[in-house]
Amino acid sequence: NAGVTQTPKFRVLKTGQSMTLLCAQDMNHEYMYWYRQDPGMGLRLIHYSVGEGTTAKGEVPDGYNVSRLKKQNFLLGLESAAPSQTSVYFCASVGSGGAFGEQFFGPGTRLTVL
Amino acid sequence: GQSLEQPSEVTAVEGAIVQINCTYQTSGFYGLSWYQQHDGGAPTFLSYNALDGLEETGRFSSFLSRSDSYGYLLLQELQMKDSASYFCAAISSGSARQLTFGSGTQLTVLP
């Protein structure tokens, strides 16, 4: 099993450009999450999904959109990138039978917006 | 909403015991999780407490006191590889199992 994978690993964007980050998991997990982590800070929840076809806003959703068309994939979109969105983005997932406090994280996508 | 506070840095020597504290202010609190993150890496789950008391997992233990809105992570027999950031995270009582993370504690283990 590959676990949670994220594509791409690195990306540099210019202000105003758009992009989509892909998260994929092969553990048949129901719950999936997108976080951002800024230097010296904890992770902040952007959006999450409790199942295929469902999404909801987290703590910092502005400037991002998500979609969960397939159970194994969770996409994060930046419609018009801003320098404030320079960050490391982590995806995580957990199954409904898993421990409540445990999430499995992908390796992260390092995004720089110039 | 939820907010968590933990020390920004802790330093200890190899073989020692270190305790990382976490206090929280929350609504809809289910429990407290702990994660480890090495530089440039992904967070990895260490432990969680849904009930008051101590949970032991090898060299790592975690404690929760709901009445004091307080928890801690205890690391014993410290090794150099334990140098990393440690995050406490409040688990939401909602069905989505959201986590709200503290800002992290950078642990440095000295030889």
- Count all strands of chain B and give the number: 11
Structure annotation, total helices of chain B: 0
Largest sheet: number of strands, sense, barrel closure of chain A: 7 strands, mixed
User: How large a portion of the residues of chain A is in β-strands, by DSSP E?
Assistant: over 45%
- The SSE order of chain B reads EEEEEEEEEEE
Shape of chain B: globular
Assembly category: heterodimer
Number of helices of chain A: 0
Brief characterization of the structure:
The complex is a heterodimer of chains A (114) and B (111). Helices cover 0% and strands 49% of the residues of chain A.
Structure description:
- The complex is a heterodimer of chains A (114) and B (111).
- By secondary structure, chain A is mostly beta strands.
- Helix content of chain A is 0%, strand content 49%.
- In chain A, strands 2, 4, 5, 6, 9, 10 and 11 form a 7-stranded mixed beta sheet that branches. Chain A has a 4-stranded antiparallel beta sheet with strand order 1-3-8-7, with no helix packed on it.
- The N and C termini of chain A lie far apart (36 Å).
- The mean pLDDT of chain A is 95.
- Chain B is mainly β and 111 residues long.
- Helices cover 0% and strands 59% of the residues of chain B.
- Chain B is built from no helices and 11 strands.
- Chain B has strands spanning 3-5, 9-13, 18-25, 29-37, 44-49, 53-57, 60-65, 70-75, 84-92, 99-101, 105-110.
- In chain B, the strands form 2 sheets. In chain B, strands 2, 4, 5, 9, 10 and 11 form a 6-stranded mixed beta sheet that branches. In chain B, strands 1-3-8-7-6 form a 5-stranded antiparallel beta sheet, with no helix packed on it.
- Chain B starts with a strand and ends with a strand.
- In chain B, 41% of the residues are buried.
- At the A-B interface, strand 5 and strand 10 of A face strand 4, strand 5, strand 9 and strand 10 of B.
